[in-house]
Write a structure and sequence with these properties.
This protein is mainly alpha-helical. Helices cover about 55% and strands about 5% of the residues.
Length: about 325
């Protein structure tokens, strides 16, 4: 009887292991938004630090910029991951880190949490070294190479070879980071190389609540940012001066063509007009530099006052024309 039960249990276990492993899905947008929020927080703290040291010399602040960045990152790490708490960005997105090595078994791979699934001390220490220490060392080393102009040495020089290898290492790292990001877009598991190496995965802190920022708010922000980027692209392409001149000519079609030298230049708003020149054939007066520059920029230039095509310009002396 006991052997029959053991065989049944073994058969059940083999059957369970042969079943497809369910996957735990965490929204990728949540994880990416958490990074963005943490970066925004770091930027705000950096601004406050710069204001604190605003009375110091500028070269002193620039000299110790990597150290200031190190302090900011350490403060965020010390009061979040180091004490088993989510970072501000992760907290707003209802995310936390868990030790993924505890969830390799098919029976628990789809579980959201286990009684003791927090990061180990080793993972925390290595995360701090990779996430905080390595960027500081790399920034300091690159600054040293740039200040001592290692790239300017001959190709046979050892310092030039070191510079070339540093650039290659940076290129390889960026390539690996890109591959990891593409993999993250496919499976949504490891957001960064450090997370993948240390077996740290972001999961929902409270499964019943996916995020603390509503989709309605995020949709509004996305629409607004898209509209703002569209404006930034279109505004430089719009000739506001031409639109202004067209509107002026349409609203005041019967404006008198006579002017004096004390009038205002409609192009640069100078009053009185500097080196007045009269546009032909309408007769309106503008600054020499303004009217000549406008005619050089546009093949067909229209008078800002009357919208008539300007064919030439002559020196204006008040009562008579040169």
């Amino acid at each position: 009887m006991a052997e029959t039960q053991k065989q049944s249990l073994k058969q059940l276990q083999s059957t369970l292991q042969s079943l497809p492993v369910p996957s735990l899905r965490i929204l990728r947008v949540n994880q990416l938004d958490a990074v963005r929020l943490d970066d925004e927080l770091t930027t705000l703290l950096r601004v406050q630090f710069n204001r604190t040291f605003s009375l110091f010399r500028t070269n002193i602040v620039d000299r110790f910029k990597p150290e200031l960045e190190l302090i900011l990152q350490f403060l965020i790490f010390r009061y979040s991951i180091c004490v088993d708490q989510p970072s501000p960005g992760n907290m707003m997105q209802n995310l936390r880190y868990r030790n993924e090595s505890l969830f390799r078994s098919p029976l628990v791979s789809a579980a959201m949490s286990l009684p003791k699934d927090t990061l180990t001390t080793k993972q925390k220490v290595l995360y701090g070294l990779f996430f905080i220490g390595t960027p500081w060392i790399w920034a300091r080393f690159n600054r040293y190479l740039i200040e001592h102009q290692w790239a300017a040495h001959p190709e046979t020089d050892t310092r030039r070879k070191v510079w070339v290898w540093v650039q290659r290492i940076e290129t390889v790292f960026k390539t690996v980071a890109l591959i990891n990001f593409l993999s993250f877009l496919l499976d949504g598991k490891y957001r960064s190389i450090v997370d993948r190496l240390l077996g740290m995965r972001l999961v929902y802190n409270k499964p019943s609540m996916t995020r603390r920022i509503s989709f309605e708010y995020m949709n509004r922000m996305m629409v607004w940012h898209g509209f703002a980027e569209l404006l930034l692209f279109l505004v430089p392409l719009v000739d506001l001066d031409r639109i202004k001149s067209r509107l002026t000519s349409w609203l005041t079609p019967n404006r008198a063509k006579t002017q004096s030298m004390s009038d205002m230049c409609m192009i640069c708003s100078a009053q009185p007009i500097n080196t007045p020149f009269r546009a032909q054939p309408c007769g309106h007066v503008y600054c020499y530099v303004c009217i000549q520059s406008a005619r050089m920029l546009e093949k067909v230039y229209r008078c800002p006052r009357c919208n008539e095509i300007v064919s030439d310009s002559v020196r204006y002396y008040g009562d008579h024309v040169a």
